[in-house]
């Protein structure tokens, strides 16, 4: 349920309404927007008397929300959410590129790639330390040592870091990670999502391999229900009957999610296609579709990469691409 408040309402009256709803067992989310102030009601609202609310002086209108996601719903929070990390903003017209190797492999590799992608304009460095691999015999990532190497690359370049968590028990090791990624295989690991709801750090939540948009938003809801409102959604392709590409990039998810939710949406063209030469066209298309950013796998030696070499582009290709992305983004932001 959402309660649209009248313009210029008295803060004391709002506080007293919030207090009364709390006594009724209903949590609230206040969104003070440019044009409207909205009070979102979360939880079981079946006992809340709509007519009574409608009759209050400070209330303009009351609406029931049919979607099962509340905190993530744009009706709750009409303005775009802008997430700021180390002075870099994502969302609300702010565009960021996250780039780096699939996995952290060595100090030399991560620092070389970090320096290169920074010079080409990436705002964040990515690199997997805990890797979710289909085969238990494949390289599983360097684990805690990988996190340490990422921290070194951060120190060396000043770039904030993004890396995947697979187990909530590892959270203490993620203290210096700037954005924690939840991979496609864990999008519906609800216990992990609940733990991430307890922290106050941005979460990059990928769409599940066969997940619907609504399921993605419900997973975001798990994190937000715990009080962590900093969620960035990532379209990374879904499993379809097509086998030429690793996954099928659902670009229409970008405008759909933007309509349904206020959260920033980025696109990962690397996992979506699995093919390095497809990364450029899909990056440009995702930018044109209105994404708030991109996550691109870049490796200094893709042929020798321990993970996802075939979809990794070189620093030189990234440098070219990054300029083209900026050009497209400029056009889009001038004609939103
Ligand atoms: C990754 O980003 O390296 C990754 C494993 O992605 P996904 O979860 O989208 O497969
Ligand atoms: Mn990868």
Kindly state the number of beta strands: 14
Strand content: 15-25%
Bound small molecules, by name, code or SMILES, are: phosphoenolpyruvate, manganese (II) ion
Q: Give the proportion of residues in helices.
A: 25-40%
Number of helical stretches of at least 4 residues: 10
Estimated structural class: alpha/beta
Shape: elongated
- Give the uncertain stretches in residue-range form: none
H/E topology pattern = EHEEHEEEEHEHEEHEHEHEHHEH
* C-alpha-based Rg, rounded: 21 Å
What topology, given as strand order, has the largest sheet? Answer: 7-8-9-10-11-12-13-14
Distance between the termini: 29 Å
The largest pleated sheet is described as:
8 strands, parallel, barrel
Overall mean confidence score, pLDDT? 96
Structure summarized in a few sentences:
This protein is of the alpha/beta class and 336 residues long. The chain is built from ten helices and 14 strands. The chain has helices spanning 11-23, 50-54, 107-119, 144-157, 190-198, 213-225, 253-260, 269-273, 276-288, 315-334, and strands at residues 2-5, 27-32, 37-42, 59-63, 83-85, 88-90, 96-100, 124-126, 161-164, 179-182, 203-206, 231-235, 265-267, 293-297.
What's the helix and strand layout?
Blueprint: E1 2-5, H1 11-23, E2 27-32, E3 37-42, H2 50-54, E4 59-63, E5 83-85, E6 88-90, E7 96-100, H3 107-119, E8 124-126, H4 144-157, E9 161-164, E10 179-182, H5 190-198, E11 203-206, H6 213-225, E12 231-235, H7 253-260, E13 265-267, H8 269-273, H9 276-288, E14 293-297, H10 315-334
Parallel strand pairs: 7-8, 7-14, 8-9, 9-10, 10-11, 11-12, 12-13, 13-14
Antiparallel strand pairs: 1-3, 1-4, 2-3, 5-6
Helix pairs in contact: 3-4, 3-10, 5-6, 9-10
Bound molecules: phosphoenolpyruvate and manganese (II) ion.
Manganese (II) ion is lined by residues 102, 271, 297, 307-308.
């Amino acid at each position: 349920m959402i309660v649209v408040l009248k313009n210029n309402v008295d803060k004391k009256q709002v506080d007293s309404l919030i207090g009364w709803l709390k006594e009724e067992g209903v949590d609230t989310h206040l969104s003070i927007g440019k044009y409207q102030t909205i009070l979102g009601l979360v939880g079981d609202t079946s006992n809340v008397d709509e007519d009574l609310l409608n009759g209050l002086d400070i209330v303009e209108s009351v609406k029931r929300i049919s979607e099962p996601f509340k905190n993530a719903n744009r009706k709750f929070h009409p303005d775009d959410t802008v997430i700021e990390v180390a002075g870099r903003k994502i969302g609300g017209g702010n565009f960021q590129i996250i780039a780096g190797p699939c996995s952290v492999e060595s100090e030399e590799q991560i620092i070389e790639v970090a320096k290169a992608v920074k010079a080409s304009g990436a705002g964040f460095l990515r690199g997997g330390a805990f890797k979710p691999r289909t085969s238990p015999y494949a390289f599983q990532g360097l684990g805690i040592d990988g996190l340490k190497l990422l921290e070194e690359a951060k120190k060396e370049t000043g770039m904030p870091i993004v890396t995947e968590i697979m187990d909530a028990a590892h959270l203490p090791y993620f203290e210096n990670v700037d954005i924690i990624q939840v991979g496609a295989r864990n999008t519906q690991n609800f216990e992990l999502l609940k733990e991430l709801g307890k922290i106050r750090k941005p979460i990059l939540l990928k769409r599940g391999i066969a997940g619907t948009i609504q399921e993605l938003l419900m997973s975001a809801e798990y994190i937000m229900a715990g009080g962590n409102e900093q969620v960035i959604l990532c379209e990374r392709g879904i499993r379809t009957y097509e086998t030429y590409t690793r996954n099928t990039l659902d670009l229409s998810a970008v405008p759909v999610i933007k309509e349904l939710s206020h959260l920033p949406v980025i696109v990962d063209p690397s996992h979506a296609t699995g093919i390095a030469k497809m990364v450029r066209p899909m990056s440009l298309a995702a930018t044109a579709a209105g994404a708030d950013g991109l996550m691109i796998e870049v490796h200094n030696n893709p042929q020798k990469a321990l993970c996802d070499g075939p979809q990794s582009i070189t620093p030189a290709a990234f440098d070219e691409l990054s300029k083209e992305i900026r050009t497209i983004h400029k056009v889009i932001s001038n004609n939103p």
